[in-house]
Amino acid sequence: MNLHTFYAGAARPVECCVVGTGGFGRTFLAQAQRMRLLGARVAVDVDAATAAAAFAAAGVERRRIRPCASTGEAAAAWAAGDYVAAGDFALVAELPFDVAVEATGRPEPGARHAALAIAAGKHVALVSKEVDSVVGPGLVREAAAQGRVVTCVDGDQPSLLIGLVSWAEVLGFDIVAAGKASEYDFVFDLGTGRVDSNGHARQVPALADHWSVAGCAAADLVAARAAALADFPLRAVPDLCELGIVANATGLWPDRPDLHAPVARVLEVPDLLAGHEDGGLLAGSRRIDVFHCLRRPDEASFAGGVFVVVRCADRASWSLLQEKGHVVSRSGATAMVWLPRHLLGLEAATSVLDAALHGVSGYGADHRPRLDLVAVATTDLAAGTRLAMGGHHHTVAGVTAELRPAAPLGSGAPAPFYLAADRQLTRAVRRGAPILVDDLDLADETPLTTLRRRQDAAFFPAADR
User: Fold this and answer.
1) Cβ atoms of 386 and 223 closer than 8 Å
2) Overall pTM surpassing 0.90 (yes/no)
3) How is residue 208 annotated by DSSP?
4) How far apart are CA 394 and CA 408, in angstroms?
5) Start and end of every SAF domain (predicted)?
6) Among 64, 121, 153, 195, which one has the highest count of C-beta atoms within 10 angstroms of its own C-beta?
7) Looking at the DSSP assignment, which residues form a beta bridge with residue 338?
8) In Å, what is the CA distance from 401 to each residue of 3, 162, 375, 434?
């Protein structure tokens, strides 16, 4: 599709408010300044000074940046054509922008921002997967009732993977698996035995013995690599979170609650993420999973991209495609089609334009709570423990996550990971056990819990509780 044609005819630029100007929000804000079809004159962060600094870093003239501490100041700055920097989304929610880009990555503030935006008649580009994993389908439903769109955002893997899956389905491919590469590669120097990943290095000479998939059973190879790389983390809450969002939009399902998450070279993906009948790891088809890209220093990265593994129903066609460099399994039964990119806010504008100009959400038409990302203790946790969320990946010490069938909040139900985050335990939880809703102090009603209860009421009939 020629995107110039698809987005032609816009009477004016689509105006955005960027909420959260670190990482994704910062790159989106900078890219918006280069675009004819998009405007971003409103930014919100923990304080107005931080938002103003983000505008300056994006190349906006400082004389045009107006830190605002009230709705009146914000309205005056907007009317003057200046850039509005605020420390509270409530101060700017009624300004006449089209789309709120929620990119804080914080569950409670993000839920509040999304709810305020919908109430103010805005579309929402929901970058914060932490919010999405708890109440995404409910937000989509509530916005649609008001003629507005909540959408996932290109530039992040969930949206890109949902798009790739739908592309494969439209073309009639039989999807065996779909997923993404983890954020950090394992870069192995076969000469020195050194492995580098995410700024950490180890000597792992034994990995050389497990470099090739040839002659190995998939499960044995994956287990041997995991053992060799035991000093590195091989499960990440963000990966599980993002694939849970994809499952809710597409109906794809994890083969196991914590995913297989194999360490794999790019050419091995259609071998490993295939069904048992084809020598792979999977017990069924239409599975979701993640792999950790294993490569030499001189090989290109998968770059946190996304993929589908499809069945080679027409072997002759795929033999031709293999000759042209496409990735086909050794058996010839499966092949991988992949997009080796996720450009964060640099490519998010297409999702924003789709929502504002065409009323289209990247989730598709059947986004529902199929899976919950639930919290599971990795150590004994005492009553009174605060499950503080922190770090770049918004994790909780002593807690991991699993993907389990979605269920309404209630007695005996596992707690969604990002609803449990920053809550206090009212009773002890043993290592290996899920943290239950009953284990958490949920006495104070927050935007996130309110939205989740409304989502539960919409998707889970009272008779089923």
Assistant:
1) no
2) yes
3) G
4) 24
5) 372-441
6) 153
7) 307
8) 38, 22, 5, 9
**Tokens standing for 51?**
């938002």
Q: Report how many helices (DSSP H) and strands (DSSP E) the chain contains, helices first.
A: 14, 21
Instruction: Give the span between the Cα atoms of 260 and 293, in whole angstroms.
Output: 14
Q: Which amino acid is at 175?
A: I
Q: At residue 331, what is the residue type?
A: S
Contacts of 314 (CB under 8 A, 6+ apart): none
Q: How far apart are CA 304 and CA 36, in angstroms?
A: 29
pLDDT, mean of residues 109-116: 98
Would you give the DSSP letter of residue 133? H
Question: Three-state DSSP class for 456?
Answer: helix
By the 10 Å C-beta count (0-12 exposed, 13-18 middle, 19+ buried), 3 is classed as exposed
Burial of 71 (0-12, 13-18, 19+ CB in 10 A): middle
| pLDDT of 1 strictly over 80 | no
Beta-bridged to residue 197, according to DSSP, are 200
Q: What does the pLDDT look like over 173-214, one tens digit per residue?
A: 999 999 999 989 999 999 999 999 999 999 999 999 999 988
Please choose, from the candidates 182, 199, 164, 162, the residue with its C-alpha nearest in 3D space to the C-alpha of residue 240.
182
Question: Which residues have C-beta within 8 Å of that of residue 338, sequence separation ≥ 6?
Answer: 266, 269, 302, 305, 306, 307, 308, 327
With a CB cutoff of 8 Å and minimum separation 6, the contacts of 122 are: 17, 93, 97, 98, 99, 100, 148
> Residue with structure tokens 């997923």?
179
- Type of residue numbered 446: T
Nearest to 321 by CA among 310, 447, 159, 353: 310
Task: Look at residue 392 in the predicted model and tell me its pLDDT.
Answer: 83
